[in-house]
Amino acid sequence: MLSLAFLLVFRLAPDLPEVKYSQPQMASLGDRVGLTFGSADTIYYATSKNDGETFTQPVALPTGGKMALGRHRGPRMVYHTNGLVISAIVGKKGGGADGDLMAWRSENQGETWAKPVRINDVPGSAREGLHAMTSGNGWILAAWLDLRDKGTRLYMARSTDGGRSWSRNFLVYESPEGTICQCCHPSLVVAAGGAVHAMFRNSLDGSRDMYIATSRDGGSTWKIAEKLGRGTWKLNACPMDGGSLTVSANNKIYTVWRREKTIYVSLPDTKESELGEGKDPAVASGFNDHIYAVWVSPTGAIMTRSTEVDQAKELAPKGGYPQILFTGHRVLAAWEDENGIAVGTVPSPSLKSASDFQ
């Protein structure tokens, strides 16, 4: 296994040893990079004004309840033209007994926050605690595993006013067998032209495979979901691993996901390609249409591979739940590191083209 010359830009660590930062998520707007993560029932937000080289001290945003956190749960964030929105699933009891998807909005880069708004229109239906959020085409979109009826379904809502209010909830997908995979997080992305793509793990015919659904009207209606990859994963359990998707510069949808012990990358309706063994993958589109992926190896190392390098490289010997982001100027990775969050720049040797992932 080769090591990558990796520049560790910043590490955010709590002041108290009993506090643990977990489940990092990133977003960017120009040179500003935002980082959110959770600890117990508190959301934290840090920002960088220099494209991820340094970050401010994290600001605490109490949720006022029990926040879903762990196994890809926890807060999400997006920037928009007038500010930023952070979302999380919170209940009075927590632990899956209750839970609503809430959105906090700030128009002054996190100095002050508006009162949170509930996104799911059936109280308690987001209690599984798994959701996604994205922005694009003037919208902010959220999707979550919904339990308003028997079985788990994928629902979505849309905001057209920067998170102040949210639409009625739209059904994205319901399995003909009564439930999709119950504990794998969904992913959302908006492509050029306003097409919305939602990825989730299904439960069909004894298999737990990844599917992608597409909407051309902002989520109001959805095409029939398509299975990703040619193989299948026969499994009577939930792997708690939902993968990630991104839109490349030429408007192609790249997905990364796990099947059994292997991480795969694929476009819709194409054969999957192996990236390496591991779990918890994430993907981003970077320079010149190159695609970058990160994941956790069987030994617990943070790994990366891109269309710019010909094999998997190690970013850190230990870590968890990595995320990856292209800011427009650099590719950043963030992951759980001991009790803190590590953020660093992924080098770009520019060796190969995006066709190598197809």
Per-chain topology:
Layout: E1 2-3, E2 7-12, E3 22-29, E4 32-39, E5 42-48, E6 59-62, E7 66-67, E8 76-80, E9 83-91, E10 100-106, E11 117-118, E12 131-136, E13 139-146, E14 153-159, E15 170-173, E16 187-190, E17 196-201, E18 210-215, E19 226-227, E20 244-247, E21 253-259, E22 262-266, E23 273-277, E24 279-285, E25 291-296, E26 302-306, E27 313-316, E28 320-326, E29 331-337, E30 340-346
Parallel strand pairs: 1-27
Antiparallel strand pairs: 2-30, 3-4, 4-5, 5-6, 7-9, 8-9, 9-10, 10-11, 12-13, 13-14, 14-15, 16-17, 17-18, 18-19, 20-21, 21-22, 22-23, 24-25, 25-26, 26-27, 28-29, 29-30
What percentage of residues falls in helices of 4 or more residues?
under 10%
Strand order of the largest sheet: 1-27-26-25-24
Quantity of strands, as a count: 30
| Terminal residue distance | 23 Å
Q: Total helix count? A: 0
Order of helices and strands: EEEEEEEEEEEEEEEEEEEEEEEEEEEEEE
Question: What's the short story on this structure?
Answer:
With 358 residues, the protein is an all-beta fold. The chain is 0% helix and 47% strand. The strands form 7 sheets. Strands 1-27-26-25-24 form a 5-stranded mixed sheet, with no helix packed on it. Strands 7, 8, 9, 10 and 11 form a 5-stranded antiparallel sheet that branches.
